Every structure is written in C-alpha cells, then in structure tokens.
Amino acid sequence: MRYTQILLKTSKESPSDENAKNAELLIRGGFVQKEMAGVYSYLPLGLRVLRKIENIVREEMNAVGASEVLMPALTPRDRWEKTGRANVDIAFSPTEKTILGWSHEEMATPLVQRFCNSPKDFPKCVFQIQTKFRNEPRAKSGLLRGREFLMKDAYSFHLTQEDFEKYYDVMTGAYHRIYSRLGIGELTKLVAASGGEFSKFSHEFQTISPIGEDEIFWDEKSETWFNAELADQFEKSKKSAHAIEVGNIFPLATKYSDAFKFGIDGTSVIMGCYGIGISRLLGTIVEIFHDENGIVWPKNIAPAQVYLAPIGKDDAVFEKSDALYNELLKEKIEVLYDDRRDKKTGPGTKFADHELLGIPFRVVLSENLLAENLVEIVDRKTGTVKKITTEKLIEFLKK
Ligand code: ATP
Ligand code: MG
Q1: Mean pLDDT taken over the chain
Q2: Is the pLDDT reported for residue 138 higher than 90?
C-alpha cells in the first residue's frame, strides 16, 4: 500500500460530534468515516482491520464445525409475524412486507429445516458475517453501538438437550480463543446473564473498559462474573467493572423451532444462538490499545506490520526505499509505504501519522542512515529504536 495511492488522509482535529475515543482515533486516522449517527463507511485501512477480525472469527467457527452461509439482510415480514417479533421498536421496515434483519433466527431456522429432516442430519450449525440493522436509540459510542453494524451470528440445531449443552461448551471455548487471538483475552470475561424465558442462564463475553455501558460483578463463592440483572442469584462482592459486551451465547430451547414447526419424529429441535459484534470489536480494541499519540494495534489485526518512512530530499533515499518496499512485498510482509515527497510532509508529519495509525513497526530511511547502510526501526508500542541492516530487518520482521 502506497500512502499516495490509497484513500487516506489523516487529521489532527478531533471530530466535534463524537465523544468516544474509538470514534475519534478511527476517524482522525482515516480508518472510518461517519455518515450519520451510528452509520460509518470503512476506508481502506479500517476495512483491512475489520477483515482480519472477521477472519479470526471465521477460522474459529470453521474449527468447531459451523458452516458459513450468507443470508439476506432484506427479510420477509411474515417470518417475523410467525415468531411474534414483527413489531419490535428497533426494526427498520423498508416496505410493508419487509424488515431489515436485526437478527436472523427467522431466516436460519426455516433454512436449516429445509435441509435437515432426519436424525442423521444433526447436529448442525450455520453462521454468517453480515450487516445488521437496528434503530438503536443510543447510537453514541462510535463503533460500539451502530444502527448498521457487522455481526457474526451462528445458530445451532440439536436433537437432545445434552447434545446442545455439549456444543454450548465447545462454542464457549471457540469464543475464548477468538478473544485471545484478538489480544483481549485477559480482559474479556465470561459473564452469566439471564436466559430470558427459556433457560436459567445465557452468557455474555464482556471486555473490561471504563467506556462499557454494562456493569459486571464478581461472585466470590461461585467464582463467577455476573450481570446486574442476576443480582438475586449471585452475591455482589467488592469486585465489579464496567465492560463492553463483545459477544454472547444463548440457549433458544424450542422457541423458534416451535414457531416454524421444525421437529424430528415429533420432537422439536433444540437451538442455540451465538453472536459476536465484529465492528464493535474494532471499536473495543481501539478503546483498549491506544496512547496519547494514537492507536497501538495488536500485531494480529494491524492494517500492516511496517510503516516505511523515507525522510529528507535525497533521491537515493527514495530509490532505496522503493527497492525495500518491493522486497518487503516479495517477502509477503504488509507495508504501508509513506511515499509522500511534497514539501509539507516532513519527518514530523510522517512520524505523527505512524503513531496515529498504530502500525507495529516504523522503518525509517534517511541520508545519514544510508551512508552507514542502515535503517532505523521503531517499535510503536515500546518506542524502542534500533539501527539495523536491511537483511537483518527482513529476518526480524519474518520472525
Ligand atoms: P447490547 O446489549 O449491547 O445492545 P444485544 O444484547 O442487543 O447487545 P445481540 O442482539 O445478542 O446483542 O447481538 C450480538 C452481539 O452483537 C452483541 O454481543 C454485541 O457484541 C453486538 N452488537 C449488538 N448490538 C450492536 C450495535 N448496535 N452495534 C454494534 N454491535 C452490536
Ligand atoms: Mg441491543
């Protein structure tokens, strides 16, 4: 990626209509653009991060045997009438007969029903990564609460309660692996929440952060985090925290299979659903990994590994950095090449942009460094500066 080629312009000004840090840094860094309250465009760098988060989630879903589908966002209203959810206040209805999907039980249940009609077809789990629409009254925390947002939703189908419970645990494991690969494993807690009308519990995955809308509490006796709504089943200790709900898993029992008459040999199929807020995760990660100069992306999801920054006016420096750029690409190392050569873009501007954009390593080339046949490598997280040869640099980056 060449800075001068991609759609990218950073800004020093904080947006006046956003209070949340994630929105401020993602907008200033040109990762996203706000289009209206709770609705954002993803620009090249933001989209790269979003796709990396998606792919981690996708790999872990595939690993637990869930199969990926893509259901429509535009859904028939009569499905929602069957389940009694046609008139919820967060639903957008573009026409009298359609609803923009804000969840997909009404689509997933009849879909799986068509293909699974004998005991040998079970268990089954489908998932999708898709845009959801919700008319959220409180779209105010940047990517944490959108009116249009990206979610991974999975739906599992079982013949026995026992089989469902086994899979619920398997999913719990997959969720823990996802959050730890995203760098937020330690901050993300499994939290007992109300199971609504169908079961005693559901579970939320809550990432501890002061901006979190939820408050979670620790029960010492059972060593469990729980949500406020379960206050009478657990005992609040001194330990509590604000947290962001980044995912949840939910027993659905037979609510949807009954609505669509999905049964095998006269017994209703047992379902579970499993959500992850993909775009909310992007915002959450920025809330956690930033400092006063900008974002500090975890390596696994950074938009690139290297920010290549030639400085000065010397042609030889730019020739050398062009060559290094091509070499890094050949080695499959992702680079954002700050190839700007205009008079206004001095080293200060390039370094500030690198810090705002949060790419793990900055590689600097200059006339003086070239004379010694060295480049400078700066670690975004620690600020450590090292001078090394380009051969050593590639070795180091490939580790
Ligand atoms: P919340 O309590 O935060 O409104 P929810 O209970 O409505 O969440 P679900 O409907 O189960 O959540 O959605 C699954 C996941 O999608 C949530 O765990 C969350 O991570 C994410 N999510 C929900 N609503 C939004 C939103 N408006 N914007 C971004 N992500 C969301
Ligand atoms: Mg909600």
Answers
A1: 96
A2: no
Ligand 1 atom 25, closest CA: 145
Phi, psi angles (nearest 5°) of residue 331: -80, 5
Q: At what angle do helices 390-398 and 315-330 cross, to 10 degrees?
A: 30
Question: Which ligand lies nearest to the CA atom of residue 252 in the structure?
Answer: 1
Write down the pLDDT at residue 140: 82
Is the pLDDT at 197 greater than 80? The verdict is no
| Gap from CA of 399 to ligand 2 centroid (Å) | 41
Residues with CB under 6 A from ligand 1: 103, 134, 136, 145-146, 149, 151, 245-248, 275, 277, 279-280
Considering the domain 21-291 in this protein, what is its CATH number?
3.30.930.10
Say what the pTM is. 0.97
Can you spell out the DSSP letters for 252-313?
EETHHHHHTT-EETTEEPEEEEEEEEHHHHHHHHHHHSEETTEE---GGG-S-SEEEEE-SS
**Nearest-angstrom CA–CA distance, 137 and 125:** 32
- What pairing do the DSSP bridges indicate for beta strands 98-100 and 263-264? unpaired
Expressed in angstroms and rounded, the spacing between residue 106 Cα and the centre of ligand 2 is 17
CA torsion through residues 6, 148, 303, 310, sign: positive
The domains of the chain are located at 21-291, 304-397
357-386 pLDDT per residue, tens = 999 999 999 999 999 999 999 999 999 999
| Interior angle at CA 324, CA 319 and CA 326, nearest 5 | 100
Q: 304-397: what fold? A: Rossmann fold (3.40.50)
Paired strand residues for 250: 273
Ligand nearest to the CA of 205: 1
pLDDT at residue number 283: 98
Nearest CA to ligand 1 atom 31: 277
Ligand closest to the CA atom of residue 144? 1
Share of the chain above pLDDT 70, in %: 100
pLDDT tens digits, 9-63: 999 999 998 999 999 999 999 999 999 999 999 999 999 999 999 999 999 999 9
Q: Which two tokens stand for residue 247?
A: 């995912």
The residue to which tokens 């010397």 are assigned: 314
Nearest-CA residue for ligand 1 atom 21 is: 277
Query: Which atom of ligand 1 sits closest to the CA of residue 283?
Result: 29
Cβ distance 230 to 196 under 8 Å? Answer: no
Distance CA 143, CA 251 (A): 27
